[in-house]
Amino acid sequence: MFLVMTIWDADPQLELPTPMPTLSALDVAASAVPTATVTRAPSPTPATYLVQAGDTMNAIALELGVSVEALMAANGLTNPDTLSAGQVLLVPEIEAGDGSQATSAPPTAAPAPTVVNGEAPRVEIRGVAGGGNLEEEVVRLLNSGGTANMAGWTLDDDQGHHYTFPAFTLHNGAVSVHTKAGVDTVIDLYWGLPEAVWTAGKTITLRDAAGGVQSTFHIP
């Protein structure tokens, strides 16, 4: 028996399918490796200081370890007496050779006052009343912390006037230091000078018995 096979002529217009490219194992492995991306470090957040009631530009600069000029320049200020409670100040970076302390040497902390009953005192100069008038002139202090044993503490104007506190204990509250003579009480102390000393433009400095600056106040 003969098997007859009919072979049809191939259509010359028929195109054979294009073979798909073959991926090598190395190509597949390379495609699975994620592309490295560069992550930028976040910009540093500028340091700020929140102005408290009774703060002065001199006291803030001293606490931050920068010069008054640098602090005012960083905040666009021209008058050091324009501070107000709640104001936010930018703290300038400390650079070596700019007249302030270098970053490698942190500011030296003032000796801590004696702690009584577990809480340190916080005595601040809150203002001057009657400046230039002996009968009315008084410096007002406020302690918002623990009890302060103030024997040996001082008030001075850096011009030779120097008041030294007697054996005196200031609890949480206020005391007034009068320039004139008088009898000391638990809320009033008397310097006994013959003339007024707290005139406009002066800066009063309160120091503890070890000489550490506890507060400053610039008289407008």
Key features of this structure:
Immunoglobulin-like, alpha+beta, 4-stranded antiparallel β-sheet, 12 strands, 220 residues, 3 helices
Summarize the model shown.
By secondary structure, this protein is an alpha+beta fold. The chain is built from 3 helices and 12 strands, in the order αβααβββββββββββ. Among the domains are: 48-90, LysM domain (Membrane-bound Lytic Murein Transglycosylase D, Chain A), CATH 3.10.350; 123-218, Immunoglobulin-like (Sandwich), CATH 2.60.40.1260.
Which regions contain 5 or more consecutive residues with pLDDT less than 50? Answer: 96-112
Order of helices and strands: HEHHEEEEEEEEEEE
Strand fraction equals 15-25%
Oligomeric state of the chains present here: single chain
Alpha-carbon Rg, integer: 38 Å
Assign a percent range to the helix content.
Answer: 10-25%
CATH level-1 class of the domain at 123-218? Mainly Beta
What do we call the CATH homologous superfamily of the domain at 123-218?
A: Lamin Tail domain
- Count of strand segments: 12
**Total helix count?**
3
CATH fold annotation of the domain at 123-218 = Immunoglobulin-like
Structural class: alpha+beta
CATH architecture identity of the domain at 123-218:
Sandwich
Question: How would you describe this protein?
Answer:
This protein has 220 residues and is an alpha+beta fold. Helix content is 10%, strand content 22%. It contains three helices and twelve strands; from the N terminus they run αβααβββββββββββ. The strands form four sheets. The protein has a four-stranded mixed sheet with strand order 3-4-9-10, with no helix packed on it. Strand 11 and strand 12 form a beta hairpin.
